[in-house]
Structures are given as structure tokens and as C-alpha cells.
Amino acid sequence: MEIKLYKGIETPMDMVLLYGSEVAAKAMPLKKDEWALLQERKTADAESLLVFDRLPHHLYIQNYNSELPSESMWEHLRRSAAKLQQRLVDEGVREVYLCGRGVIPEEMLAFVEGLHMANYRFDRYKTKKDKSLDRIWVDESIVSQSMLDENLVLWRNIDRCRDWVNEPVMALNAARFADELKARADELHVDCTVLGQKQIEALKMGGLLAVNKGSVDEARFVILEYKAEQPVNERPIALVGKGVMYDTGGLNIKPDDYMQEMKSDMAGAATMASVLFAAAENQLPVHIVALLPLTDSRPGGNAYAADDILTMYDGTTVEVINTDAEGRLLLADAVAYSNRFNPCLIIDAATLTGAAVRAIGTFGIAAMQQGADNAMSLLKIVGNKVYERLVEFPFWEEYDKLIESEVADIKNCGIAQAGAITAGKFVAHFAKQPYIHLDIAGVAFFSKRESFYGVGASGYGIRLLYAFLQTCDVMNLNK
Ligand code: BES
Ligand code: ZN
Ligand code: ZN
């Protein structure tokens, strides 16, 4: 979808008018009875949608509640936009002009964001394509070109991330995903190193190699680096993403329909790559590296088994309790490898545990931190702002006991309780710098349509981490 700025008010197309507060009432292009109807509806439901005939076009008036706190108002605007998107395509509208009365840029951008994200379709395999909007025009008196451009870059990177996550493993295995990342990096002049099977073996990444053993496809380890000319952080922020191209569970194979949707188990890697690409494309003044271990996990003839004892990249030995707890094994190697870059902060994103979903559902991210109190506080603030929220779980030392092993240094699962935390603790064992763990299992992929996030891959977390990078200078990262 194209989004452009439009000058002027008279438009030869359908028009959507955002209407927040009474202040702008006089400027509404309405007749007396229409105005009365609008008032009545707005009183009954502050977020109602009204449609007036302006033959041959329509005037859609989208009310919104300007009395809400900004952050929830913006989220309501995104959600209203998703509903409107559905209505517009149902009515055969392909192009609209967006304007407003008494609307500030953040409000308009939230609305456009909702429209853009809701308009995403993964329909490349469908013979009959879904209907969607082709073009949006935005009143240039509300939003500037530079604001729009920065957001467009972000939204397009979100769409690309969703494509990667939605792509089934038969089309996107580790090697192909690595090729795609390399191609994208080359386009943006971002440094990209792809380690192949032999190099991963030479580096002795025991976690990644174990998970890969049952697969007929090779593993990859992708390293992306973007450094602005004058970054606010001299030492990079390391973004680590779980890249399990498909999670069958391995020999501890997933039962029944638990396996379905596990093509999304590489969402962490796709998210981190997309955050880095968006930052690079918009030239944010930061220094970041993304470390992406990629493989699928299968019960092949040579697959790793429960009871196996692995030696990880950093030398730690790990007893395998359950082969379905595979994500933490590749994350561990990647987190340990990040030490080479001497990062000021490590953040990982991973569809890591069902336990995180059971704890908080699909409304946010389960987050944990080790020595990264300040960064976590900032992340929570920006999370509330963009409404990709996180809740911090404890990382008490008592949990460490749960992953102690009789036969190795640690084991890859704890007990049935606190599963999201023991998973995080396992990875934290390998972090030598301040570390934040984001378990995105509940939000990376929606089985049913979820407002502007749509159905399937959501791209959840990219707006969060991008906003974090935009503001991380407040942390004095160089000290
Ligand atoms: N990829 C799954 C976690 C997951 C579950 C993501 C549901 C998205 C939706 C992960 O590899 C996994 O299988 N975790 C196990 C761990 C267990 C064996 C300790 C789980 O959560 O059941
Ligand atoms: Zn698993
Ligand atoms: Zn997994």
C-alpha cells in the first residue's frame, strides 16, 4: 500500500475524517441535521463511525475519545483503524483521503499505523487475492513528510518480518532465510556475515548443532551489524533472536495440534533482523549487532535425544531433559557469542515458552532481566507508549537451583512451575553483560484475527524495540 501526503481539502475520492474534540467543531463539513446526528452518536459512543453520502463518494467520520490518556487513545485509534480498514475493503474502497479536525500528528500517525498494519495480507499463495487498500492520502497540514517517511520505513520492515514468519518451512529453511537476510543487508549496506555449517562446527556451537542434528537442512548463524557515524553507544547493543525455522519438538515430538503454527518459531530472529534493518534504513544514531542462530528442529535419524550432554560454545555442559526446549540451546550459543562484540546490553526475543502464554495470555511480552534494571525501565516506558507492553518476571536466585543438573553444569528444563523463568534463567547463564530476555510466544503469531495485528505473524515487538533504540541515549550507554 502506498501512503502519500495530500494538499487541499476538496478530494475526488472517499474521505475519512478523524474527529476528536469539540474544539474543532465549527470546521466540520456537515449540514445541520448531520451535525446533530454526529453529536448524538458521539455522546452515545465516543469512538463510533458515521458514514455520510457525498455522491459519488462517502464521508466517513471516525470519532475518537480525545479524553483518554495519550497512550491508550493512540491504541484505540489503531484499533478503530483496523475496523475501518475492514469496512472500507468490504465496501470496495481502494483509496481514501485522511484528514481531521483538531487532530495532532501522533494521533493521525497512530491511525495510519493501524490502517497500514491491518491492510497487511499474506496472500502470495492464494490464487484469488484478498481485497485490500491500495493507497492512502494523508492531509499534509497534519503530518510532515519526514514523520511519514520514518514511519513508512518502520511499517514496511514490519510487513517484511511478517512475510518471513508466515512463510512455511518448505519455502524458508535456515539457508534460504540467511540468503534473504544477506540480500536485504546488501541493499541497505549493512554488514552481514553468514556462518555456514562447517564454520558453526568449527566454532563448536554445541547448542545450535544439537538442535540441527535431526534436520536434513544445514544450520546457519547470521550476524548483522549497523553502526551509525556517531552512535550514542560506543559498545553495541546485541539483539539476539531465536531462529527455529520449524519446531516439531524433535524426539520429544509435539503432540496433536501443538505443532501447528510452529513455522513461527523463528519470529524472534525475524523481529531482531527487522529492528536492525529499520534502524539502519532510518539511520538512527546507534550501534547494534543482531545475532541470529537458524535451524529447524526435527526428529531425524540422528536427532539429539533427552539424556544427551552437550558442550556449548562457551564450554558450559548441558544435560538435555527435553528436546522440545530447543530454543534456549541456540540462544545460549548466540548470547555467549555476543561477548565477542563486548556489548553494553544484550536483548533477546524468542517464542520460547508455552508457560509465558499461560501466565499472561496474548496481551504482552514476558520480560526478565539480569543486571539491566535501567534498560528494562526504559523498555517498559516505551512499551506502554507504543502499546507493545511487557511485564517483568522475577529472576530470583532460587530459580537457578531448578536448572542444576546431576550430570552436567546445567539442564535445559526445570520443573513444571515457572517454566518461562527457568527458560530465561537458562539463557541468562550465558550472558556476561546486562541482559534482557523477551519471551514473545504469546504475541508473535495470532491464530485468530487480532485487530490491526491481523491473523498469523504480527510483527509484535518491532515497534517496541525501534522506539527503545530511538530513546536509548537517555541511558548514557557509554558510561
Ligand atoms: N517454541 C516452543 C514454545 C512455544 C509454544 C511458542 C507455544 C509459541 C507457542 C518452545 O520451543 C517449546 O516447545 N517450549 C516448551 C518447553 C518445555 C519442553 C520445557 C514448552 O513451552 O512447552
Ligand atoms: Zn520446542
Ligand atoms: Zn521452539
Question: What's the short version?
Answer:
The chain has 479 residues and is α/β, with parallel strands linked by helices.
Describe this structure in words.
The protein has 479 residues and is of the alpha/beta class. The chain folds into 2 domains: 2-139, Leucine Aminopeptidase, subunit E, domain 1 (3-Layer(aba) Sandwich); 168-474, 3-Layer(aba) Sandwich (Aminopeptidase). It has helices at 32-44, 70-90, 105-118, 145-166, 174-188, 197-202, 206-212, 267-281, 327-338, 354-360, 373-386, 398-401, 419-428, 462-471; strands at residues 2-6, 14-19, 49-54, 57-63, 95-101, 135-139, 191-195, 220-227, 237-241, 243-247, 287-297, 309-311, 317-319, 345-350, 365-370, 390-392, 410-411, 435-439, 445-446, 456-457. Strands 7, 8, 9, 10, 11, 14, 15, 16 and 18 form a 9-stranded mixed β-sheet that branches. Strand 10 (243-247), helix 8 and strand 11 (287-297) form a beta-alpha-beta unit. The protein is elongated, with a radius of gyration of 24 Å. The structure holds ligand BES and zinc ion (2 copies). One zinc ion (ZN) binds at residues 247, 249, 324, 326.
Low-confidence stretches at least 5 residues in length (pLDDT < 50)? none
Residues in helices, as a percent range: 25-40%
Number of strands: 20
Q: Shape, please?
A: elongated
How would you state the average pLDDT, rounded?
Answer: 96
What's the end-to-end separation, in Å?
Answer: 43 Å
Q: Report the top-level CATH class of the largest domain.
A: Alpha Beta
Can you count the helices?
A: 14
| CATH architectural arrangement of the largest domain | 3-Layer(aba) Sandwich
Radius of gyration: 24 Å
